[in-house]
Amino acid sequence: xxxxxxxxRRRELNSDDVQYDQNIFDEALLELNKVVQxxxxxxKDFGLPMPPNTTNSDLTNSxxxxxxxxxxxxxxxxxxxxxxxxxxxxxxxxxxGKIALAVALSxxxxxxxxxxxxxx
Length: 120
What we know:
The protein is mainly alpha-helical. 51% of the residues lie in helices and 0% in strands. The longest helix is centred in the first third of the chain and has 16 residues, at 22-37.
């Protein structure tokens, strides 16, 4: 099941750089728990751990989250050194491994953002 999730993430991100991580294993446990719940039980009944932070699992298991955390920090740091005067705060945050939520007020503004999308 975890391998299916890994393959799906690689397809969503169009990147073979995605590797197994705790989020993938947690998502697999959550999916397994959904199946087991059909019989009125929980994965805990079988000695399996319930993943922590299950309330935020949709966020941390999403392709967007993975894409944002997979950014090439070395490349971003090189860009900062070269282009720092032109960087906005979001780009500076991503260069140190933080997630920056870019918000645009129109579709045209979104085309200026890396990834060409914004929060709605």
